[in-house]
User: What shape does this take?
Amino acid sequence: MGDTEISEPSRSRDLRLSSRWTSAHVAGISVSPVCHAPVIGASAAKPVSDLGLWDAWPLQQADGRPAVLDGGGTLWMALAAPRAADPDERHGHARIHLLRHTGQDWKMLGPAMPEGFSPGSREWSGSAILDGDTSAVTLYFTVAGRRGEPTLSYEQRLFQARSHLQRDEAGYRLADWHGLREIVTPDPALYMATDRGGAPGTIKAFRDPFPFRDPADGTWTMVFAGSAANSCSPFNGVIGAAVSMDGARANWRLLPPIVSADGVNNELERPHI
Assistant: This one.
């Protein structure tokens, strides 16, 4: 949003705590070089894998910095799926994969979670935090659909799972996956349900969890992409939030959206603080 001023919080019942992102803000964006991404030529692209990769995030420390491995380098997670003629098909096959980044090189380490562990028909984006003292990793991610469903659905649920970062002769891996559970469910007075069908570009959101620790007081807040309940517009994207009720990030309480683009944008994907 750049330097665009955000209006006072909405006074509507459902979005009473939300800052508004309106068409007037969009119209007020000045066109400048910063608005244009540089062109990436074919010679600059170096395939990492035969799989298609997108929506990557680092294994990070609690303060948000990427966790640096012994010997250097960082671990990343990314959605991956077999390449298809229609790029939209990747969303129906997405799984979270683990990668190691060292210098200019990337190495694929395979699926982050073991086959059959996730309760969805596929896995969508999230974030991951490493406890440097114990090597415990907590993954926050989106469960899309349900395992075994005959037709892929667009239902989205926010889950967390725990594992341990291990290093052996083959390299780094995440082992001993456990603690899989849904961490927060949508309040229908605040967030629209995602189990009502749709298509890419028009589906509703309850996904992309990202916890943030406020350095001022240590409070953990989780932001995610959502859709406003009781909206009259098909473009009702919001940035949702939940607050941790304990320092261990084990229990979360859902909050009203903190940013609303109702009437402007359908999806405010992968919010980060």
